Amino acid sequence: xxxxLPLFVVSLAVNNGFDGIGGFGLxxxxxxxxxxxxxxxxxxxxxxxxxxxxxxxxVPWIDNALDTVATPAAVLAGWFVSGIFMPEGxxxxxxxxxxxxxxxxxxxxxxxxxxxxxxxxSSATTGGLGNFVVATGELIGSLLTxxxxxxxxxxxxxxxxxxxxxxxxxxxxxRRRLRGxxxxxxx
Length: 187
Hints:
The chain has 187 residues and is mostly helical. The chain has helices at 4-15, 26-30, 40-56, 62-85, 93-126, 131-151, 153-178.
């Protein structure tokens, strides 16, 4: 849903030594290879990037242009965040990253696709003036899912599926409204 916000939440949690519910140890899960994500310079950089990204989505038409870049970037970010937190017991490195591509990248792509469609429909029906509603919903969903992913990973997965379903339903409802309403019932 957002490119930088999930990475910022992870970086902030690791930087502050948060070990999640049950103390599963974010630093231990990340290992030495990805400890850099919790460094102060990376946390600050991701915080600034998150702020700029959030602000950009509140400017009509810039938000639609940003989706062109954000969609593949969101898939990559979802893949990366899922991959760094997957246990090593998933097999060799290639198997772990392939699973992360399907799970993290796939879910990020599905949710991002739903928000792109909702924002496009909103732009077409309101001239971009209603996009702040989509941007706010996306921000809340992204923040909630990111925080839950750090605190309780299984709950975050369920929330992501619910959000994806909600976004799909919203898209279908907006598309139906744009096309002139529901089809008449056949007797």
